[in-house]
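so im writing up the methods section and need the LacI family transcriptional regulator record in one place, dumping it here so i stop losing it
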Amino acid sequence: MALRGKIAAALDELGYIPNRAPDILSNATSRAVGVLLPSLTNQVFAEVLRGIESVTDAFGYQTMLAHYGYKPELEEERLESMLSWNIDGLILTERTHTARTLKMIEVAGIPVVELMDSQSPCLDIAVGFDNFEAARQMTAAIIARGHRHIAYLGARLDERTIIKQKGYEQAMLDANLTPYSVMVGAVLFLYVGY
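--- predicted struct ---
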């Protein structure tokens, strides 16, 4: 057995886990991508994270996850912590950020991918869809099936929710129907079932 193999076997037997900090400092890279999510209770973000990790894993990157509960100040703190680990890239799901968050991103000089919205102005790269048009088309499809009393239910008054609401309202107005929206500030738990 070659020396490298013997060393690897001994380290494995001891349960040794290498400290990545010196490697990060000497190579100026962490092989990690930061992901800032506003919610861990929304199933959409679980699926988004699964998709992200299918790509990062394939390219030998780790995913560093932080949750900020739609609170801009907490997003700042989480981002500062991630950047202190010298992440190689950043994935965001919101387009609205504080001035301090934007400054930290600018100074970091790393690639930034913004998800969930392809229409709003982005910092670097956008991957997503047109929330207004998606909501408008979905509502128009429901109207085309003969339904006339259609309500829009939204939780959290984040930017995407408001854009979707406007798409719904536009489809209702285009069909000469009265829009009806129910918006709540936050939902702690939502269960839809039989």
